[in-house]
Automatic annotation (TrEMBL):
GO terms for molecular function: transmembrane transporter activity. The chain crosses the membrane at residues 12-34, 46-65, 77-96, 102-123, 135-157, 163-184, 196-216, 222-246, 266-286, 292-315, 327-348, 360-380, 401-420, 469-488. PROSITE patterns: MFS. This is EmrB/QacA subfamily drug resistance transporter. Residues 12-492 form the Major facilitator superfamily (MFS) profile domain. Belongs to the major facilitator superfamily. TCR/Tet family. It comes from the Bacteria. It holds the Pfam family MFS_1. InterPro entries: MFS (IPR011701), MFS_dom (IPR020846), MFS_trans_sf (IPR036259). It is found in: Cell inner membrane.
Length: 544
């Protein structure tokens, strides 16, 4: 019977993988089809919003969906998100101008937020802590493969069919995921009347929306030190202050205060945020450096980064072998140590480095990120019962996405500052041949500049800017290490579940859940002692 139960979880896992693939692919699939989209719809000045609005809508809704999943069950929230995502996909394919495409991409993003908030939560519900590392590794593999394949797939659709198929292809894949979820995932959730925290949800949407909007637009639509920046970020700070006030008084807060007052969750979220920052910093800088400084082809430059998306899920899938022996925190420390090794290698690379050197560093970085991020997520999920796992998981997903937005803003600003400084201080013999804007540097190097002196100066300038980014990544890695050592406790008390996977009468998988809680704490991973208390106060143990 146990074997059959485990086998019946597989269709649900496939549905989760399909859902995550859809969300991941639509983040970047449009990138290679921009010429065709603009040629058909016009509105080139608005093209940046096609990407930004998707990320914005996705990010700001994650905490709200996580709370709803705890109140009403994972299945209705996930199904709603997939349906909304597919509606947005169909409407995007039918867009008649750039503004309509942006609006429909926002609809897609609203659905993607639900997927981001619930996929990892459902996986944690279905599998015990001993199995979650392997399962999350598979989900990470789907994310990595989708991120690599999406731009290529978008280019193929745009060139040989139509850019509209970029969105239409989501419909059959999403329909398969929906059918498998409806057939095989059965939740018997204890239904209760809930007091919806509308004020908290609204303030969270406003606060996170202003923050992400400011990070996306700063340095592009307006200068960082400008009135619009002060207004947007000031509004975000004010909204976050109001969130803390409202959530402390709410009967069922969207973001419970204990998420940030408890050292375990707060430290894990900060470490996850910095990890997201490091990931986006390397992902945006390494291919440019490999192509424009080392002179690699676009395919070869992409491969240098692609090895990270191979070693990351491989390390994630094996992380459980470590954290079951030495604990979540110490496993994350090993991963952080590997990222530091990789970042030191990146910092020491010069403009004449052999291609294998950044490739090896990228592979080490991926392994480190896998061992760093996976124990943080699974560790957090394992410290709470079913009724709080959605909100604690969505907090981790929100931290990672916010870190990516923050990293893109910080490292983009660093790159622009260094390059502008080099253009302004250029010697007289090359100044006349330099481009007027930073955005033209990579293009000129790719096309080949007729003046070797100008090309060499531009290449050195780009190398200096990327070197500065690598130094920033190293500093971020050190900060992560310090957070893990001094903030995140070594002991993660593991919650003993009452939820168990059973076979439904019709032969499908059913997740039978007591939404009121579990049996308390089992022996913790990392040395935590057993407690039969079950109260939140027990989960506030400090580090040892």
């Amino acid at each position: 019977m146990a074997t059959k139960q485990r086998d019946r979880r597989f269709p649900v896992l496939v549905a989760l993988m399909l859902s995550m693939a859809l969300m991941a692919m639509d983040t970047t699939i449009v990138a290679t089809a921009i010429p065709q989209v603009v040629g058909d719809l016009g509105g080139f000045n608005l093209i940046g919003w096609v990407f930004s609005v998707y990320l914005l809508a996705n990010t700001v809704t994650i905490p709200v969906y996580g709370k709803l999943a705890d109140l009403y069950g994972r299945k209705p929230v996930l199904v709603f998100g997939i349906v909304l995502f597919l509606i947005g996909s169909a409407l995007s394919a039918a867009s008649w101008n750039m503004l309509s495409l942006i609006i429909f991409r926002a609809v897609q993003g609203l659905g993607a937020g639900s997927i981001a908030a619930t996929v990892n939560t459902v996986a944690a519900d279905l599998y015990r802590v001993e199995e979650r590392g392997k399962i999350q590794g598979w989900l990470s593999s789907v994310w990595g493969i989708s991120a690599i394949a999406a731009p290529a797939a978008g280019g193929i659709f745009a060139e040989y069919a139509s850019w509209r198929w970029i969105f239409l292809v989501n419909l059959p894949l999403g329909a398969i995921a929906l059918a498998m979820l409806m057939r095989y995932l059965k939740e018997n959730v204890v239904r209760e009347r809930h007091r919806i925290d509308y004020a908290g949800a609204g303030l969270i949407l406003v606060a996170s929306g202003l923050l992400v909007f400011g990070l996306l637009q700063g340095g592009t639509s307006w200068a960082w030190l400008s009135v619009p920046s002060f207004v947007v970020f000031g509004g975000a700070v004010l909204a976050f202050v109001m969130v803390t006030v409202v959530e402390r008084r709410a009967a069922e807060p969207v973001v419970p205060p204990w998420l940030w007052t408890r050292r375990l969750t707060a430290g894990s979220y900060v470490a996850t945020l910095i990890a997201g920052l490091m990931m986006i910093g390397l992902s945006t800088s390494l291919p440019t450096w490999a192509q424009s400084v080392l002179g690699l082809s676009p395919i070869a430059a992409g491969f240098v980064l692609a090895v990270m998306t191979v070693t990351w899920p491989l390390a994630s899938s094996q992380a459980h072998r470590l954290y079951l022996r030495i604990g979540f925190r110490d496993t994350a420390l090993i991963g952080c140590g590997l990222t530091l090794v990789a970042e030191v290698i990146f910092v020491t690379l010069d403009a004449d480095a052999a291609p294998w050197q950044p490739t090896v560093a990228s592979a080490v970085m991926g392994a480190g990120m896998g061992l760093l991020s996976m124990p943080m997520l699974i560790g957090l999920q394992s410290t709470v019962g079913w009724s709080e796992r959605g909100v604690i998981t969505s907090g981790s997903m929100f931290s990672r996405t916010l870190g990516q937005s923050l990293g893109a803003a910080i490292f983009g600003a660093i790159t622009n500052f260094v390059l502008l400084s080099r253009l302004d201080s250029a010697p007289a013999d090359v100044r006349g041949g330099l481009p007027s804007s930073v955005s033209d540097i990579s293009r000129l190097l790719a096309d080949g500049h007729e003046d070797e002196g100008v090309a060499a100066y531009l290449r050195d300038s780009l190398h200096l800017s990327m070197h500065t980014v690598f130094v920033g990544l190293l500093i971020a890695g050190v900060l992560t290490f310090l957070v893990l050592v001094f903030v995140v406790p070594r002991q993660f008390p593991v919650y003993e579940e009452t939820a168990e996977l059973q076979l439904a009468d019709e032969g499908a998988s059913a997740l039978v859940v007591d939404a009121a809680g579990g049996k308390g704490f089992a022996d913790g991973i990392g040395g935590a002692k057993r407690s039969d208390d079950g109260g939140r106060g027990q989960r506030d143990d400090g580090p040892t």
